[in-house]
């Protein structure tokens, strides 16, 4: 018996040695789990980060590029690439620190300038802080890129670059801190899961202000200015739809049921928005348009964004219906009644959609709405009313701050660049050749 016991002990010791050797072969994984990092969450946010950048390059670039005229397609693609570059650098230097540093209720501090104090093992929650910073950087890239649609085909490239840089630091960064960085709106309890206020309202309002300050394109609204390449636009729209899963699903910052539900409601709202806009045009004009379908899809995506972590599929269906119908009406009103040349409909789609979605997040988060309810965030009608008030305050504050600062930045940039617009002759020639001495097509 003693022999058998000794043999068993020897086998047990061999197993312990083999186990220790296996752990030594995977030191990163073991140390990471000991340090509190979640491998699954990290993998998902890595994927989401790539998806959100994919939304701008090439998604938004192709979507916007196809909507402008042939002579301006390259300028739009170039502006998207330039903004991606300059926003990335500014986010690293100080943007991230001011947005997510402790600071106060209005702005962060400089503790994370150039990622000071952040190493490979530094965590934000249970993912690397470097990854969290990179994920948020992709949001900082796409937001000023969305504004391009408000001044497309007429703004100097130098003015675009300077405006985007200043706007990012003076508008986007403070509002990000207000909502997500521990600022006053976050302290109030504002629901903005993935950027209704931070991304869509700021971009939409800024585009509207830019369109008003610059004035319309030559010939607007008398001269038709149809998209030059709908194939490009639809391809870009498809990339936006896919990338939005990272935009909303990644904002859960975890690979869990909340991320899965956010992706589901995102898809439902996008599909419903597309079909709603399509059928409105079909009934009104006798034929559905591809442009209407993709614009309705983007409206559905933008409107569901702030609410995507707080509502269920039934609520998402209503959000998509409202997005397709309300944003369609807003587009017609802006162009035909007010005659504001928001060239690519940024305000009526993103601005109006962001405002509506932010308010609806307070409505559909209530657990008293049955199949249309959210998931335990606002209990009952009374608390729903209080949450809607918080959402309303967030919308109003974001609109006022963005509009005032954007107007001031445009005036400053006009002084620094000797005017925001290219000349009338240059506008007729097209920005591709005037700004870059290149063309989008060599035919």
Any key phrases for this structure?
globular; two-stranded antiparallel sheet; disordered N terminus; about 450 residues; about 70% helix; mainly alpha; Ammonium transporter fold
Question: What fold name stands as the CATH topology?
Answer: Ammonium transporter fold
Radius of gyration: 24 Å
Strand content: under 5%
Number of strands: 2
Spatial shape: globular
Structural domain count: 1
Largest sheet: 2 strands, antiparallel
Unreliable parts: 1-5, 15-34
Oligomer: single chain
Q: Can you write the helix and strand succession as a string? A: HHHHEEHHHHHHHHHHHH
Structural class: mainly alpha
Please report the number of helical segments. Answer: 16
Name the average pLDDT: 91
Sheet with the most strands: spatial strand order: 1-2
Q: Please report the distance between the alpha carbons of the first and last residues.
A: 91 Å
Second CATH tier, the architecture: Orthogonal Bundle
> According to CATH, what is the class?
Mainly Alpha
Q: What is the CATH homologous superfamily assignment?
A: Ammonium transporter AmtB like domains
Helix content: over 70%
Protein architecture, described:
This protein has 443 residues and is mostly helical. The protein has one domain: Ammonium transporter AmtB like domains (Ammonium transporter fold, Orthogonal Bundle). 72% of the residues lie in helices and 1% in strands. Strands 1-2 form a two-stranded antiparallel sheet. It is globular and about 60 Å long. The N and C termini lie far apart (91 Å). Residues 1-5 and 15-34 have low confidence and may be disordered.
């Amino acid at each position: 018996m003693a022999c058998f016991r000794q043999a068993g002990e020897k086998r047990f010791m061999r197993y312990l040695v083999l186990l220790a050797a296996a752990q030594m072969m995977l030191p990163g994984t073991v140390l990471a789990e000991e340090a509190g990092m979640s491998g699954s969450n990290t993998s998902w946010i890595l994927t989401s980060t790539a998806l959100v950048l994919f939304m701008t390059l090439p998604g938004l670039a192709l979507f916007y590029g196809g909507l402008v005229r042939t002579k301006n397609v390259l300028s739009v693609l170039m502006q998207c690439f330039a903004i991606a570059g300059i926003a990335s650098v500014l986010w690293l230097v100080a943007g991230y620190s001011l947005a997510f540093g402790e600071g106060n209720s209005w702005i962060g501090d400089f503790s994370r300038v150039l990622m000071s104090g952040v190493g490979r093992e530094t965590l934000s929650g249970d993912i690397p802080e470097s990854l969290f910073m990179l994920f948020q950087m992709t949001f900082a890239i796409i937001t000023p890129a969305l504004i391009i649609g408000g001044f497309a085909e007429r703004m100097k490239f130098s003015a675009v670059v300077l405006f985007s840089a200043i706007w990012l630091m003076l508008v986007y960064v403070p509002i990000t801190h207000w909502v997500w960085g521990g600022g006053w709106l976050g302290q109030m309890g504002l629901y903005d899961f993935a950027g209704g206020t931070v991304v869509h309202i700021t971009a939409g309002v800024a585009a509207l202000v830019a369109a008003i300050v610059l004035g319309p394109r030559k010939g607007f609204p008398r001269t038709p200015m149809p998209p030059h390449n709908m194939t490009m636009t639809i391809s870009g729209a498809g990339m936006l739809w896919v990338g939005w899963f990272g935009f909303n699903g990644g904002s859960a910052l975890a690979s869990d049921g909340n991320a899965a539900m956010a992706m589901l409601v995102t898809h439902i709202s996008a599909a419903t928005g597309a079909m709603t806009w399509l059928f409105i045009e079909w009934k009104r004009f006798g034929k559905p348009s591809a442009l209407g379908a993709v614009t309705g899809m983007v409206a559905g995506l933008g409107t569901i964004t702030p609410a995507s972590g707080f509502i269920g599929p039934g609520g998402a269906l209503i959000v998509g219906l409202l997005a397709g119908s309300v944003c369609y009406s807003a587009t017609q009103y802006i162009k035909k009644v007010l005659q504001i040349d928001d060239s690519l409909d940024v305000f009526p789609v993103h601005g109006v959609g962001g405002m509506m979605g932010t308010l609806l997040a307070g409505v559909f988060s209530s657990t008293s709405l049955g199949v249309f309810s959210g998931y335990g965030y606002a209990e009952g009608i009374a608390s729903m009313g209080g949450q809607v008030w918080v959402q309303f305050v967030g919308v109003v504050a974001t609109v006022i701050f963005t509009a005032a600062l954007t107007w001031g930045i445009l005036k400053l940039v006009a002084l620094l660049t000797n005017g925001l617009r290219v000349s009338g002759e240059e506008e007729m020639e097209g920005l591709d050749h005037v700004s870059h001495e290149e063309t989008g097509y060599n035919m």
